Amino acid sequence: MSAAQPEVPPLLEVNNIEVVYSDVILVLRGLSLKVPKGEIVALLGANGAGKSTTLKAISGLLKTEDGEVTRGDVTFAGERINGIDPHLIVRRGIFQVMEGRRIVSDMTALENLRLGAFTRRDREVGDDIERVYGYFPRLKERTGLAGYLSGGEQQMLAIGRALMARPKLILMDEPSMGLSPLLVQEVFGIIRKINQDLGVTILLVEQNARMALSVASYGYVMEQGKVVLDGTAAELADNEDVKEFYLGGHGAERKSFRNLKSFKRRKRWL
Amino acid sequence: MDFTLFFPLLLNGLIVGALYGVVAMSFVLIYKASQVVNFAQGEFLLVGAWVCWWLLTTYPIPFWAGFLVTMCFMTLFGIILQVVVLRPLIGEPVISVIMATVGMSIFFQALMKWMFGVFAKPFPPIFATERVQVLGLQVQPVYLLSLVVSLFIMLGFWWFFTYSKHGLAMRATAFDQQVAQSLGVSVPRVFAMSWAISAVVSSVAGVVVGVVNGVSSALSFYGIKVFPAVILGGLDSIIGAVLGGLIVGVLENLAQWVDSEFLNWGNMTQIAPFYALVLILLIKPYGLFGTKNIERV
């Protein structure tokens, strides 16, 4: 795995960052991770572990929520980017697809796509819209307001809008949220496809660990604001703890109610 | 019943209403983009008209040149107001922001009176004054021109918000600032841009009214007439603002006709739009075109 190769510097490197909200709430405590160019890296963890905060620390959107990176740095393509305004980070090639899609519901799908290309100055926006329609043919048929699209279509629109910016790195926050299993399959198929076709690097935050590990090459497991486990997707999928806590497998035998206590104890890796 | 006055008043209502619509649109633009209720909207007309008047009476330049310079000045004026007065107030309570705009309104009214005096001053003659016949009515060409200018501005707004990327960015900012930032939009720049556009567009209306009626502090009444117009139309709807403006304009003039024919109370012109405002708020509290949130179930 190229994550282990020291001679190629990773596209994104998060080094020991600490994030504080409203000057008092410490959310990330020394988180580090690397995202190699051209790969899909999954970031897993329970609710409240700090996954979304990590993405916002990278994209700079933390600023809009009164959060701040107080220690450590975020390096993108060799340059330190923490503290930069979010709209400038987008211009550097990092695009975040926020949790819950967040498409502009009182615009049409087409207008949302054109909005995605806001930072671009070239004249190929029209071609890119056609390319997005190639990935998501059903968006082309939708001419009404984007707010009336189905959840799956909105997710596709959110991903399509990200592609319109031609980013080097897409940060995806829970693309499977609120989608039916069939749609989750479809969306992840497309995520894999755009990674292969366009070479876009993707950092993927997911609750659906099985799905995430199936498309990712490398994964990190977060707990309480730091990384507690990392490895290639195959290693993580084989790990007994990951299996038990995130993949929903039962391990050797079904846990009885009495053993739930040991669940808490065992979940602490550090 | 005497209808000789009815149709001229109706036409007058449409012409004035279109101007109200233009001012209301620029008011809504600021409200939508930066959530500021701008009580100094009328002063944009006033400042713009005085600047244009001053340029034309001081320098021997043609009208269009003075007009262009005024537009450039108002762009800067809007940006500077936003950056100097409004930007430091971001995150402060709504009432503080409103008070700041009320303060700006008083300040610029006083400043204009101090600089240019309290009496109305006519623009140098620009257009032919022979009346033309429209649908059997005698109309001054300036009035027709003002109608054309209003429609032109409305078309411009429509184009800007539907096709230009900065218009889309402005709509996105109005929808959700965090989303706009995640798309690479600089929110402070959108705020400044909305003030600049609003100031320019209002001042166009100011110059048009100035050319027709002369420049005086009465121009800032347009800023007050904007309130019934935008509340009629819904505070955050641009189309609503245009229609609200037209309704207010027509209503004023119809009220004047009704008043002169039947009631003879006097002053119905001023009050009628506000009666309509109260009625509409009773029936449709969000105005005719106020936000309907899309909710998927």
Brief write-up:
Chain A is of the alpha/beta class and 270 residues long. Chain A has helices at 51-59, 86-92, 109-116, 125-135, 137-141, 151-164, 181-198, 209-215, 233-238, 240-245, 260-267, and strands at residues 12-21, 25-35, 40-45, 67-76, 79-80, 94-97, 169-173, 201-206, 218-223, 226-232.
The poorly predicted ranges of chain B are none
Low-confidence stretches of chain A: 260-265
Please write the CATH class name of chain A.
Alpha Beta
Supply the CATH superfamily name of chain A. Answer: P-loop containing nucleotide triphosphate hydrolases
Report how far the terminal alpha carbons of chain A are from each other: 25 Å
Number of H/I helices of chain A: 11
| Strand composition percent of chain A | 15-25%
Report the helical percentage of chain B: over 70%
Strand adjacency order, main sheet of chain B: 1-2
CA distance, first residue to last residue of chain B: 55 Å
Sheet/helix structural class of chain B: mainly alpha
Task: Quickly give the CATH architecture of chain A.
Answer: 3-Layer(aba) Sandwich
Instruction: Name the chain pair whose interface involves the most residues.
Output: A-B, 30 and 19 residues
**Can you summarize the main beta sheet of chain A?**
6 strands, mixed
Annotation, overall tally of beta strands of chain B: 2
- Name the helix and strand elements of chain A from N-terminus to C-terminus, one letter apiece: EEEHEEHEHHHHEHEHEEHHH
Shape of chain A: globular
